[in-house]
Design brief:
This protein is α/β, with parallel strands linked by helices and 355 residues long. Helix content is 38%, strand content 18%. The protein has helices at residues 11-27, 33-42, 48-61, 64-74, 97-106, 121-129, 164-173, 203-211, 230-247, 256-268, 300-308, 345-349; strands at residues 83-87, 109-113, 138-141, 152-158, 177-186, 190-195, 221-226, 272-275, 278-281, 291-296, 313-318, 326-327. It is globular, with a radius of gyration of 21 Å.
């Protein structure tokens, strides 16, 4: 690893540099992005329509103004550059992009373990960012062993709470983090939507929130609370689902496990609706990947607030959001400064550590 040297740009200068790097990456034919998109799609890692959606969102949300705004809102104080090991998830294309932005904005040194499920897209950006930032600020690999002996001062992990203890033991055993390293662990994996008035349901936004990325994201809606039943909702849902799938076809066929569930629901008269690789139903026998639960309740807000206290919930959405709810329209397109698991990434990176 390179010896750490200080970064002299102030955070607003870094925000301007970072915005320029993002723009060059998105627009430049020499950034390698087009080749990364092609390889990702050709190898069946993610459908091209989901990759393009993620990139379009980055183009709209990562701007000089949004990055400067994030700095103004969340940057605590200038930091002595430290090594930050980021363990990226691979459930969505470019799912850890905000973490990369946060580390580079903070002035720390990014050490990224990229997912083998998404090895090309982030790497193409980091290659471009290397033209704007000192070489020692950016190092990355798809191999965790690459970081043996790193002694990172901060570690960022996104994934399953079941796997983290194993990962942490490996990090400590291989000297990848210091004994007193600061840890930012994000394990939320689901979101819900609430509709008190059926006339306010935005069916297109709801469909996008459920089907985009085939429901694999922590911001994807996997449960709905509404004053109308699924049976009443099916005509509108089916129309918008069909429209969505015309331009965003499912990556593979309907899962066998969900076919079995659908047959069971049909046999016992439980309302249900297939949606790409997912299945929307009014009742479940057991939780399974790809099942979306539609709850008909008298007080959706109370039910949703109860869900907020359940471990693993990322967001609660509404089309008429109160202070405690997010807008359904931003389910798959959050602002650059959104707070995964309620934690502001940049604020955490620039706050005093435990050392």
């Amino acid at each position: 690893m390179s010896e750490i040297t200080k970064t002299y740009q102030n955070p607003r200068e870094r925000a301007a540099l970072l915005a320029e790097a993002v723009q060059e990456w998105l627009d430049g034919s020499e950034s390698g992005l087009n080749r990364a998109i092609q390889k990702t799609a050709d190898e069946g890692l993610f459908p091209e329509h989901d990759i393009r959606f993620a990139l379009d969102h980055i183009r709209r949300s990562v701007t000089p103004e949004s990055l400067t705004g994030w700095v103004n809102e969340s940057f605590k104080k200038p930091v002595e550059p430290e090594l930050v090991l980021v363990l990226h998830a691979g459930n969505l294309p470019l799912v850890g992009f905000q973490d990369i932005l946060g580390v580079l904005l903070s002035g720390h040194y990014y050490r990224g373990k990229l997912s083998r499920k998404d090895p090309y897209l982030a790497a193409s950006f980091l290659k471009t960012a290397g033209k704007f930032f000192p070489n020692e600020m950016i190092q990355y690999s798809t191999s965790l062993d690459f970081f043996n002996g790193l002694k990172a001062h901060k570690v960022m992990f996104t994934g399953s709470e079941k796997t983290y203890p194993v990962v942490r033991e490996r990090l400590a055993g291989a000297g990848m983090m210091t004994e007193g390293a600061d840890l930012l662990i994000r394990t939320a994996h689901k979101s819900v939507a609430v509709f008190e008035n059926p006339e306010t349901i935005d069916w297109q936004c709801l469909t996008e929130a459920i089907l985009r990325y085939e429901g694999r994201g922590c911001r994807s809606v996997i449960e709905v609370f509404s004053t109308i039943s699924l049976e009443e909702a099916i005509p509108d849902l089916e129309f918008h689902i069909n429209n969505f799938l015309e331009s965003n076809p499912a990556s593979t066929g309907f899962p066998a496990a969900l076919k079995f569930e659908m047959a069971y629901f049909s046999a016992v008269g439980i309302s249900h609706l297939s949606a790409g690789r997912q299945l929307i139903t009014s009742k479940v026998r057991q939780n399974q990947d790809g099942l979306i639960i539609w709850n008909r309740v008298d007080n959706p807000r109370v039910s949703a607030l109860h869900q907020k206290g359940i471990h693993g919930l990322q967001s609660v959405y509404s089309t008429n959001p109160a202070d405690e709810f997010e807008s359904l329209s931003e389910a798959q397109t959050p602002p650059v400064n959104w707070k995964p698991d309620g934690a502001d990434t940049l604020s955490w990176l620039t706050s005093p550590g435990t050392k």
